[in-house]
Amino acid sequence: MALLEIRNVTRRFGDFTAVDDVSLSIGAAEFFTLLGPSGCGKTTLLRMIAGFDQPDGGQILLDGRDMAGVPPEGRNIHTVFQSYALFPHMTVEQNIAFPLQMAKCPDDQIKPRVREALEDVSLQGKEKRYPNELSGGQKQRVALARALVNRPKLLLLDEPLAALDAKLKERMQLELISLQKEIGVTFVYVTHDQEEALALSHRIAVMNLGRVEQLDQPAQIYSFPKNRFVADFIGECNILECGVATNVDGVATLELDGLGSVQATGANGATPGSRGALALRPEKIAIARDLPPTDCVNRFNGKVHDYLYTGDVTLYIVEVQSGHRLEVMLPNNAVGRSSKFFEPGDAVQVGWRDDAGHYLAD
Q: Distance of alpha carbon 296 from its chain centroid, rounded?
């Protein structure tokens, strides 16, 4: 049985439907992420799980128990907010001890449990400090320790890393993964950051306009998006409109609008005469001044329109003969820039294998 079940949950605010008939099952010790743009309903759903808001329809069950009418303090669920919500007048140990005191935990049990929580988040020696004496990462860890000190069955995290700089965010992501594995508490994590969701999660529910567009493991969502929204929202992606000419023995011939014919394998749902789109990740496209003839069954001539150097990779915008622009990504495997670095205006060839893209049926 799932630890958390969300059955046909709907939440409306006047004429606006924030969460629209959402159903999810989340297992024990799972790191589960609700991912989507601002306004997609992910935070509203999190608030209903926590008990801060009530659904207009559907059920939320924790360990098989219906949470209808159960207040937040009765749910054995804790929430870590983006602001951390630490008490500024309390020390680190006082902040962490607060939930235990509210639960009327015996005094002789509070200190050892606070000490254990401090060890869980590597904050030994900081117990007498106040929040204004801590770094952003340390505040994050205090908030986690406070949420975990009475071992909830479920921990809700609402964009907890959004305010951190890139380097600290990366370190905290690794700490979150390690902490979740060590403690075994179920995490339900809300973020709009695709890279963060891909890095942290066992499974991801991609939300849009109050509904779940796709629910799957990160690698499946990235490589096999269900529709245009998921393909476009998760990472960089070329979405090429097309018609289906043929589909024989698992190999489809697609007529890309303004580009021409390409071959695509695994194009499930590609019925001859129908329309759809080919989702093609930039890193799946090869680029060279002259591509070797055996490398790519699909190839086009073009010129470099522009590029974006980001340190580990360079993203090229290549304008092919039809005027279409493709995003192509190369790793920077030489000092400074890619060993195959191209300048705007350079003539190039781009191409990809027949199994590089993913067909999206209309």
A: 31
Reduced to 3 states (helix: H, G, I; strand: E, B; else coil), residue 205 is strand
- Within the chain, all domains assigned CATH 2.40.50.100 are found at 236-361
CATH code for 4-231?
Answer: 3.40.50.300
Q: What is the pTM of this model?
A: 0.91
Per the structure block, which two tokens stand in for 175? 């700490």
Q: List the beta bridge partners of residue 155.
A: 78, 187
Strand, coil or helix: 244? strand
| pLDDT level of residue 61 (50, 70, 90 thresholds) | very high
Q: Name the residue type at position 283.
A: E
Question: What is the average pLDDT across 146-157?
Answer: 89
b/e string for 275-311 if b means 16 or more Cβ within 10 A? ebbbbbbbbbbbbbeebeeeebbbbbebebeebeeee
pLDDT of residue 338: 55
Contact yes or no for 306/317 (Cβ under 8 A)? yes
State mean pLDDT over 204-227.
97
Nearest to 47 by CA among 13, 86, 15, 1: 13
